[in-house]
Amino acid sequence: MDHAISLRKVVKTFGEGQAAVHALRGINLDIGAGELFMLIGPSGCGKTTLISIVAGILRQDAGEVRLFGEDLRTMSENAQADFRARNVGFVFQQYNLVPTLTVQENVALTMMIGGLPRRRAMDRAADALFDVEMSDRMQAMPNSLSGGQQQRVAIARAIVHNPRILVCDEPTSALDHEKGRQVMEILRAIAIKPGRALIVVTHDNRVFKYSDRIATMQDGHIIRMVRRHFVPHDPVDSAPVSTSASAGLADGTAFAPVG
What we know:
Blueprint: E1 3-14, E2 21-32, E3 36-40, H1 47-54, E4 62-67, E5 70-71, H2 77-87, E6 88-91, H3 103-113, H4 118-131, H5 147-159, E7 165-169, H6 177-191, E8 197-201, E9 213-218, E10 221-227, E11 256-257
Parallel strand pairs: 3-8, 3-9, 6-7, 7-8
Antiparallel strand pairs: 1-2, 1-4, 4-5, 9-10, 10-11
């Protein structure tokens, strides 16, 4: 499998001296193209810092980060911002839709801000909304949509520029079981397209079954990894993940300790 994302000995510290917070402590990680990779762990373990570095929002203090072979640390801030705009999409727990714009306009907005003519941006938005099964609500206003529908619009906005890396921070935590399932099936379909990788940070054990691998983080380290084989309609959608090194998923998949 080709590596879409590769991290080597990545370190990130906030603050200095006794007040220093060691968010990442020498992370080594490869994520393959076409992979749906999940990060789990307690609050403060380094998950958000890790995805922020992968997305080019933060710079690491030490170590190497490569996205599809490109070394982000060798880029200027402007070049890194341009790379991020072209190659990275974000899906957040909060939908952050503009309430005064239609669904289609919300999805097209960033493309228009980036200089794409309105008609082309709206056409691209229509294509993205088709991919997330929201073509019939393109002219709706956000406040007329359910939570699951708003999250689908947010996903369309994240993929409208055809990014190679999609980063999702708790995309299902505010959704009920059925809406969460629909969102994850859409994300799964997006992830397996050639030349793309998807990282999902989650505490929602209902969605673990959609992953190819799950990494557990603790105190700035990846402490264990589990590989799953995605099976559509797999009934194991509430398998608890323990922090015990000897534990596994409820379907019998064992954890592989890291390091």
